[in-house]
């Protein structure tokens, strides 16, 4: 699988990053199988969080054996700095590591939320100074996320950002403008860029969920490949997190293995094909689990 340098982190991450949200309610056996599948494709970057259900408990025991080969990224959505530090140390214990490669302010969806995280982000930067994490970043998934992350880069010396990059939100001119401004600033500052929601299709609405993602994903190999190609062809994106559903994991990994960039014309066609589809955001209104 192709790797790309994740900005100033210096790590050459595989373009597919193992998204541990897929292990939300996984058994140890399911977790081991999914983890091994990703590793067999060469995946060398794990994205995990306490908010991901059982993920830390079932994936943690698998990490020490491959720690030297794995970039371990974790997150906190806490606001209190003491709580952030305590959660960081708890995550390190569960994951069997003496430091993280990346610690991220999780779920910063807009500028209002960013303003509530000032002390938390300062605590993360202090943890970087103390050697508990090599890098610090910010994540979010909503329409206001790119604008909030751009402001975060102006306020703090962050190493990475993570936000939605998929065709339907690129069809929104406001979101796209904000996202492209964020990508430009990230490139200027050599900040690593990770994308999420590559397989997003639409909100569940009244339909019964058939996947463990909070939105309805595309479920065919062709559609997932199209989503992966679109995201990885977006200038400035270094990698994508695999979707939060174990059935989608092999499709996403296969798409990453066979990745070939889309032409600009093809990207435009993919964007245009999504016009009229319902966006999965705002998160608070449309998320289901």
Shape: globular
Question: Level of helix content?
Answer: 40-55%
What is the residue-averaged pLDDT? 97
Derived from helix and strand composition plus strand pairing, the structural class reads alpha/beta
Distance between the termini: 31 Å
Characterize the biggest β-sheet.
8 strands, parallel, barrel
Strand order of the largest sheet: 3-4-5-6-7-8-9-12
Low-confidence stretches: none
Individual helix count: 12
Number of strands: 12
Portion of residues in beta strands equals 15-25%
Report on the structure:
By secondary structure, the protein is of the alpha/beta class. Helix content is 41%, strand content 17%. The protein has helices at residues 28-40, 55-59, 81-95, 111-116, 118-129, 145-155, 167-170, 173-189, 221-232, 249-257, 264-274, 283-286; strands at 3-5, 12-14, 16-19, 45-47, 71-76, 100-105, 133-139, 160-164, 192-196, 200-202, 216-217, 239-241. An 8-stranded parallel barrel has the order 3-4-5-6-7-8-9-12, surrounded by 6 helices. α3 (81-95) links the parallel β5 (71-76) and β6. The two termini are 31 Å apart.
């Amino acid at each position: 699988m192709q790797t790309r340098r994740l900005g100033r982190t210096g790590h050459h991450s595989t373009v597919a990053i193992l998204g541990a949200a897929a292990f939300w309610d996984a058994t140890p056996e399911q977790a081991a199988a999914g983890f091994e599948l990703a590793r067999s494709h060469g995946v060398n970057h794990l994205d995990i969080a306490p908010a991901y259900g059982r993920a830390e408990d079932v994936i943690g025991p698998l990490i020490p054996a491959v720690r030297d080969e794995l970039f371990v990224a974790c997150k906190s959505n806490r606001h209190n700095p003491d709580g952030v530090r305590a959660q960081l140390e708890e995550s390190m214990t569960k994951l069997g590591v003496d430091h993280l490669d990346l610690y991220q302010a999780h779920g910063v969806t807009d500028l209002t939320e960013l303003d509530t995280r000032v002390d938390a982000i300062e605590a993360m930067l202090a943890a970087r100074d103390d050697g508990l994490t090599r890098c610090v970043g910010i994540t979010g998934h909503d329409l206001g996320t790119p604008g909030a992350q751009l402001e975060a880069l102006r306020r703090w010396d962050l190493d990475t950002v993570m936000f939605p990059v998929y065709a339907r939100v690129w069809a929104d001119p406001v979101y796209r403008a904000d996202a492209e401004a964020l990508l430009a600033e990230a490139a200027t500052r050599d900040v690593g860029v990770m994308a999420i929601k590559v397989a997003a299709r639409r909100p569940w609405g009244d339909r019964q969920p058939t996947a463990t993602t909070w939105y309805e994903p595309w479920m065919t190999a062709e559609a997932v490949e199209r989503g992966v190609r679109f995201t990885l062809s977006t200038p400035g994106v270094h990698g994508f997190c695999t979707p939060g559903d174990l059935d989608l994991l092999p499709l996403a990994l296969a798409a990453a293995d066979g990745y070939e960039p889309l032409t600009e014309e093809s990207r435009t066609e993919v964007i245009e094909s999504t016009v009229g589809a319902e966006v999965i955001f705002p998160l608070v209104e449309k998320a289901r689990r």
